Amino acid sequence: MIDLKLGRMSPAESERLRAFDGEHVWHPYAPMPATSPAELVVEASGVRLTLADGTELIDGMSSWWAAIHGYRNPVLDAAVTAQLGKMAHVMFGGLTHPAAIGLAERLVALTPEPLTKVFFADSGSVAVEVAIKMALQYWRAQGRPERHRLLTLRGGYHGDTFGDMAVCDPVNGMHQLFSDVLARHVFAPSPPLGYLAEPDEAYLKELSALADAHAHELAGIIVEPVVQGAGGMRFYAPEYLRALRDLADEHGVPLILDEIATGFGRTGELWGCDHAELAPDIMCVGKALTGGYMTMAATLCTERVATTLTSGEGGALMHGPTFMANPLAASVASASIDLLLSRDWRAEVDAIEAILTARLEGAADLPGVADARVLGAIGVIEAEEPVDTRAVQELVMDHGVWLRPFGKLVYAMPPYVCTEDETGHIADALYAVAESLGA
Ligand SMILES: *Cc1c(COP(=O)(O)O)cnc(C)c1O
After folding, report:
1. Is 267 annotated as a binding residue?
2. For residue 301, what are the β-bridge partners?
3. Which residues are noted in the entry as pyridoxal 5'-phosphate-binding (predicted)?
4. pTM value?
């Protein structure tokens, strides 16, 4: 039985649940049955997760970029509860509601000016599917169906559905497993590493030549701005994003920015594209949109994209998830945005950046460490070899921290509400991992 007061559970019950989980419940990117057991979380509050045995861990992952305000935030809890008192859900076909309209008002106001049309999706992956569909329909509406390929960067990650996988990094995204069924897009090499790196002229020429070579069939350009997240946790100079904006203009194709990981302040600016002071034609947001409470994402586009595709065959964007614009998710998203803007989020992210930078100093020089880097509230240790996930997790849990490494990458993106002390714990755990790599 769960002891609600303590959030604890008898060891026998905890064992039973974990055993069932390992045998029957699929986890992300995991085999079935599981080869290593998942930790059992019974509660979360503030920036801490409580495990079944009462262990508390500071969540250095913000539940995959999402829980920027931490857990059980009273304002967000109240937003969900208030909406629950009105309705949990209603279909969005032919019906609308104040929760969706309120969120759309906020997104239009908060995103770069040309983005004025909002499509609500039920996950980040679907938001990217919708963005791709918008770009393709944009050309079909103009009688140019041969424009069906997207230019993108190696090292990218855009979600796990088939349309999205086709624009993910071909190696990380395991294209070889699905090579016969994935759409064939155009891949430029990853931009040179480093937010502050001087622009590499040879690389810029290569980008431009690639766009030229495929100009006749190009439907759009899709990238993550400034930070390539799950595809490699790579930071690149805003100059390259500007070059992509210019190429999109030159070829008259929409620039799609996937801000699902970078949005809502994570990189130190509200949007990744703010680093380059430019606006996309289509933009995807998700992850932190609801403060980590519910699954919801959105695809925004310009008036031009919307009216062009609407003028074509069908006269509509052909997409409509059952749980589109879910009122509970939309309400908590609006509350999360208001909460973010009510605080000095920039100072919070800057403080996390300063602590991560200071405590990871020297980590890059340790044996077994290929690189250590920080941008905004993102800290990354890149190992020379793939890490032992289980061993790394045990080490950081000994430091009272939760992190989830993948491949050669051990990284943190703390909730913005972490205190100095809590961020320090996360940074120390990262440094401890770096020290352990050469051992
Ligand atoms: C996580 C992520 C997605 C996919 O979002 P889901 O909600 O997991 O479907 C797409 N693009 C980027 C950049 C992401 O980080």
Report:
1. no
2. 117, 282
3. 124-125, 258, 321-322
4. 0.97
DSSP 343: T
Ligand 1 geometric centre to CA of 159 (Å): 5
Helix segments in 141-237, DSSP class H: 162-165, 201-213
Question: 3-class SS at 49?
Answer: strand
Q: How far apart are CA 240 and CA 324, in angstroms?
A: 34
Selection from 336, 313, 316 nearest residue 130 by Cα: 316
Tokens of 200: 């590499």
User: Is there a contact between 241 and 276 (Cβ–Cβ < 8 Å)?
Assistant: yes
Q: Is 3 in a helix, a strand, or coil? A: strand
Q: Is 26 marked as binding a ligand?
A: no
Q: Are strands 115-121 and 297-302 parallel, antiparallel or unpaired?
A: antiparallel
In three-state secondary structure terms, 264 is coil
Residues with C-beta less than 6 Å from any ligand 1 atom: 123-125, 128, 157-159, 224, 229-230, 258, 260-261, 286-287, 297
Integer CA distances (angstroms), 358 to 164, 374, 396, in order: 36, 10, 19
CB 225 within 8 A of CB 241: yes
Rounded to whole angstroms, the Cα distance separating 342 from 339 reads 5
Q: Parallel, antiparallel, or unpaired for β 115-121 and 409-412?
A: unpaired
Q: Which two tokens stand for residue 107?
A: 């997104």
pLDDT tens-place string over residues 267-321: 999 999 999 999 999 999 999 999 999 999 999 999 999 999 999 988 999 999 9
Burial label, 400 (beta-carbon count in 10 A; 0-12, 13-18, 19+): middle
Q: Which of 300, 220, 283, 278 is nearest to 252 (CA)?
A: 220
Q: pLDDT tens-digit profile of 100-120?
A: 999 999 999 999 999 999 999
Where do the H-state alpha helices sit in 217-344? 238-251, 303-310, 327-342
CA distances from 227 to 183, 280, 358, 376, 394 (A): 24, 16, 21, 10, 28
The structure tokens listed for 381 are 């240790």
Closest alpha carbon to 247 in 274, 216, 220? 220
